[in-house]
Amino acid sequence: MKIRIGVGTGGASSTAEAMDELVTGLDELGFDSLWLSEVLTGPVLDPVVGLAWAAASNPRLKIGTTMLLPGRNVLRLAKQLASLDALCKGRLLVTLVPGLTYAPERDAIGVEPKQRGAFIDEALPVLRRLWAGETVSHDGAVGRFTDVKLSPLPVQQPLEVWLGGTVPAALERCGRLSDGWLPSLCTPEEAAAGRAVIEEAAARAGRSISGEHFGMSLGYASAPIDPATARVMTARRPRSLELTPVGLPALRKRIEEFIAVGFSKFVVRPVVAPRSWRAELDALAAAVGDLQT
Description:
The structure is a single chain. The protein is α/β, with parallel strands linked by helices and 293 residues long. The protein has one domain (4-291): TIM Barrel (Alpha-Beta Barrel), CATH 3.20.20. It has helices at 16-29, 47-57, 74-87, 105-109, 113-131, 168-177, 188-204, 227-236, 248-260, 277-288; strands at 4-8, 33-37, 62-68, 92-97, 135-140, 143-149, 161-163, 180-181, 215-220, 265-270.
């Protein structure tokens, strides 16, 4: 089992200077990948733009995104991600997510939370057909077009798509449609139980998911979380505070607990913006870098 650790930025890298420090440090210190999450109303870069910048800045580092799928025109999304994978020569990692459910993000996405699962069910098979080079026609909630053949195609064939989510419907969908699972805010025991549900759903659909394709997105705090930040975290996602490791030794322990139940891919992201990305990455590398195999 290959253990890989990527780093997500949260809201901490919205300038070219911060991104340059981050990309350079990730490469020099041997981290697997850079991850940008999409939050429409948050202080974060658009992931397609940010990752294109990062890929052009470094020819080796893998680039990953947890990107919103609901609300998107599927043909435009297919074109964007295929173009990005072509330009970075196959270094793109994709996890598609339903999006956050608290205001104002909920309203900005434009699809009610209860309708987002159906949107993903419709969109993902169409994306796969377009990325495979088929001639595709579609008329539905995710787009309307006739006899479209996408170009350029992704370098990766297939371009794998992972999903997140921990509710029963999301787990079933992951088994039925995805190439991997990258959830957040769950315990190792909950993750192991979720993986079992996903593998059962995949078997019912006549498919399988590689044992190497189960990962975890982990928010962490390098130092004790101040009360104001704690209140915001709890208001947005009630379990976030209790499931956030505080201190790098606690982060390492949590990663080891997930490895023990069969998870091997990790995206770690500071919940508080670091003053210096290089100092943060140096500390991270000392704490967890040797876990990569």
